[in-house]
């Protein structure tokens, strides 16, 4: 069965510091992977997605993610965090028929 | 104007009441979805529809029903609301022309409180 694990419930980083949010998935077939961001009181916005090809994908707002099949991971990174990046981040895997399974989310706090 | 809208944005209701949440989209997408979000549980799929004549149950459909009135409209109903249906509900859409590998676009959410 498909599943997505985000092991970090809450992460706090200083503004300007680098960021890595972890995501591990379990899925028997080729995974299609997504990262979404949810700002307070807002819906979900797509940051980036991986379908095939280059395992390092670039997204909006300076985010990138790397797909590592051997580790079943799709970690999200940003080299320098801005205060406006404070939000909740969700990793998701598409498990056929365009159905998304989401992780439980990682809440990011950015301190000045 | 937002591409995916949800009404109401907030709702308080009582146990046993019937309530309908509505979703409209102007993206011209065939596929629509309803999710609920609970703290610590992420988003879980309730129902999805690939076109007006197609309705499918998701992971947690018990206690819910849906109606796809038109390509642009997808409603979620709670026939008899119960407190554990208190959650944040999201509607989403996707194009459908690619079959897979498509981005889902989310509405702003409806916060529902069942007393």
Q: Characteristics of this structure?
A:
heterodimer; A: 112 residues; mainly beta; six-stranded mixed beta sheet; four-stranded antiparallel beta sheet; 0% helix; B: 115 residues
Protein architecture, described:
The complex is a heterodimer of chains A (112) and B (115). With 112 residues, chain A is an all-beta fold. Chain A has no helices and twelve strands. In chain A, a hairpin with a 5-residue loop joins strand 10 and strand 11. Chain A starts with a strand and ends with a strand. Helix content of chain B is 0%, strand content 56%. Chain B is built from no helices and eleven strands. In chain B, strands 2, 4, 5, 6, 9, 10 and 11 form a seven-stranded mixed sheet that branches. The model of chain B has no long low-confidence stretch (mean pLDDT 91).
Task: Give a short synopsis of this structure.
With 112 residues, chain A is mainly beta.
> In terms of structural class, how would the helical and strand content of chain A be classed?
mainly beta
Poorly predicted runs of chain A: none
Shape of chain B: globular
**What is the beta-strand fraction of chain A?**
over 45%
| Count of helical stretches of chain A | 0
The quaternary organization reads as heterodimer
How is the main sheet of chain B built? 7 strands, mixed
Q: Write down the overall mean pLDDT of chain A.
A: 91
- Low-pLDDT windows of residues of chain B: none
How far is it from the N-terminal to the C-terminal residue of chain A, by CA? 41 Å
> What's the helix-strand series of chain B?
EEEEEEEEEEE
- Total number of β-strand segments of chain A? 12
**Rg of chain B, alpha carbons:** 13 Å
General shape of chain A = globular
What's the total helix number of chain B?
Answer: 0
What structural category do the secondary elements of chain B indicate? mainly beta
The average pLDDT of chain B is 91
Number of strands of chain B: 11
Q: How would you characterize the largest beta sheet of chain A?
A: 6 strands, mixed
The arrangement of helices and strands of chain A along the chain is EEEEEEEEEEEE
> Roughly what percent helix of chain B?
under 10%
């Amino acid at each position: 069965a498909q599943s997505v694990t985000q092991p970090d419930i809450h992460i706090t980083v200083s503004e300007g510091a680098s960021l890595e949010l972890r995501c591990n998935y379990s899925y028997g077939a080729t995974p299609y992977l997504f990262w979404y961001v949810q700002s307070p009181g807002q819906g979900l916005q797509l940051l980036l997605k991986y379908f095939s090809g280059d395992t390092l994908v670039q997204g909006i707002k300076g985010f990138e993610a790397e797909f590592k099949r051997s580790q079943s991971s799709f970690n999200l990174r940003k080299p320098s965090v801005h205060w406006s990046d404070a939000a909740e981040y969700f990793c998701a895997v598409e498990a056929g028929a365009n159905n998304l399974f989401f992780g439980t989310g990682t809440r990011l706090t950015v301190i000045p | 104007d937002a591409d995916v809208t949800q009404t109401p944005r907030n709702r308080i209701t009582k146990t046993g009441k019937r309530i309908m949440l509505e979703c409209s989209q102007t993206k011209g997408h065939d596929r629509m979805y309803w999710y609920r979000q609970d703290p610590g549980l992420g988003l879980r799929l309730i129902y999805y529809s690939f076109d007006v004549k197609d309705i499918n149950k998701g992971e947690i459909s018990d206690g819910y029903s849906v109606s796809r009135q038109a390509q642009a409209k997808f409603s979620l109903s709670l026939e008899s609301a119960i407190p554990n249906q208190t959650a944040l509900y999201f509607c989403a859409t996707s194009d459908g022309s690619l079959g897979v590998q498509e981005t889902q676009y989310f509405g702003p959410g409806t916060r529902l409180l069942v007393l």
